[in-house]
Design brief:
This protein is of the alpha+beta class. The chain is built from five helices and five strands. A five-stranded antiparallel β-sheet has the order 2-1-4-3-5. Helix 3 packs across helix 4.
């Protein structure tokens, strides 16, 4: 199964709804496919323009490494030199913090990832998990 634009848009809408319900600051969401290519991006009014790069790096890192942002953060804590090297390998498109949510289909295959940026990293991750469910996927934050 591949990630469609409609699924990406459904995920983004759910992320934004979760952000509003949780009183979060304005969010930005990048959705990438299994190859790390941006399928969709949207930034709420009031979110700084630099949030695109942050959201994309969270999503890209998750899909490229096959793990959510929380697991990437643990990896960076335990192996900081490796994590720094990964950022270089991926031309800066790897941010090992919560907010990168890996997307898996019903068979467990990776179909893409969401990158959420704008509030605390933990809140970004929680909103991203809502987006994963709304798009019909299992999310790994």
């Amino acid at each position: 199964m591949s990630l469609t634009r409609d699924q990406a848009r459904a995920a983004m809408a759910a992320v934004f709804a979760a952000g509003r319900a949780g009183g979060m600051r304005p969010l930005a969401v990048a959705v990438v496919d299994a190859g790390g290519h941006v399928v969709a991006f949207e930034r709420e009014d009031g979110a700084p323009v630099g949030r695109f790069e942050v959201a994309r790096a969270k999503a890209h890192g998750a899909v490229m490494m096959g793990m959510g942002g929380r697991a990437l953060a643990r990896l960076a804590e335990g192996r900081p030199v490796f994590a720094q090297t990964l950022a270089g390998v991926f031309d800066g498109k790897l941010l090992p913090v919560p907010g990168g949510v890996l997307l898996r289909d019903a068979s467990g295959a990776i179909v893409g990832a969401l990158g959420v940026s704008g509030d605390t990293s933990d809140n970004d991750a929680e909103a991203g998990l809502e987006g994963a469910v709304a798009a019909g996927f299992t999310g790994e934050a």
